[in-house]
Design brief:
Strand order of the largest sheet: 4-3-2-5-6-7-9
Number of helices: 7
CATH architecture: 3-Layer(aba) Sandwich
CATH superfamily: YjeF N-terminal domain
Structural class: alpha/beta
Number of strands: 9
Order of helices and strands: EHHEHEHEHEHEEEEH
CATH class: Alpha Beta
Largest sheet: 7 strands, parallel
Strand content: 15-25%
Number of domains: 1
Helix content: 25-40%
């Protein structure tokens, strides 16, 4: 088992320290997504990718990663799955994709999930960023249905930070969670990767920094 495994509370404290040190949320997203892009590129999963993002910063990480994969020559399809308004960082990254002419769509209801099914037939792999470390209870409705469809698609899946639907502290899966072949997690391993059902959902785990290492952040007061 890895030497350093952190809880979501500990990880949020490190994020706060990074912001206090002068890193804006946007810079952290750009840094994290760059490192994730490099790792994905090294896996040789194919050239066609579906980036499935949620409404928060995890979704923003995923959309930023999608842009950088497109810059490397990948054929990228991006979708934002949420029946609620996206946050400002996710909105910013979505607008960047639009301005660059990279395919992006918005799925706000179950009818829109038909598009997800169509895209799954076109791609080699999926980058999952629907939900992040904030999951504490079961996923329901649109997000659960999206997760189930992606799992059933038979494609290789890379999860951003944590497989969507997995409780990062306990490893619990109350309803549905992404069954990732790979997880690119930020700063450190999460407790839930090694407890409960976590080990059955994460696949091979890679740890990426966010432009500043965990060791440096832990030294800050």
């Amino acid at each position: 088992m890895p030497k350093v495994i952190l809880s979501t509370e500990e990880l949020r404290r490190l994020d706060t320290k990074a912001v206090k040190a002068g890193f804006s949320e946007r810079v952290l997203i750009e840094n994290a997504s760059s490192n994730m892009c490099c790792l994905i590129d090294s896996l040789n999963l194919g050239n066609k990718v579906l980036a499935a993002a949620g409404r928060g910063n995890n979704g923003a990480d995923t959309l930023a990663c999608a842009r950088k994969l497109a810059n490397r020559g990948y054929n990228v399809y991006a979708i934002v799955i949420s029946d609620k308004e996206v946050n400002k960082e996710c909105s910013f990254q979505a607008d960047m994709l639009k301005r660059l002419g990279i395919h992006i769509g918005f799925v706000k209801d179950d009818y829109g999930l038909l598009r997800v099914k169509e895209l799954l037939h076109k791609v080699d792999f999926v980058v999952d960023g629907i939900l992040g470390i904030g999951v504490k209870k079961g996923v329901e409705g649109l997000l659960k249905n999206a997760i189930d469809i992606i799992n059933a698609g038979g494609k290789k899946i890379v999860s951003c930070d944590v497989p969507s639907g997995l409780n990062p502290d306990t490893g619990a899966v109350t309803t549905s969670a992404i069954r990732a072949g790979y997880t690119v997690t930020f700063l450190s391993y999460k407790k839930g990767f090694f407890t409960g059902k976590g080990k059955n959902y994460c696949g091979k785990i890679y740890v990426a920094d966010i432009g500043v290492s965990r060791e440096l952040l832990e030294k800050l007061t």
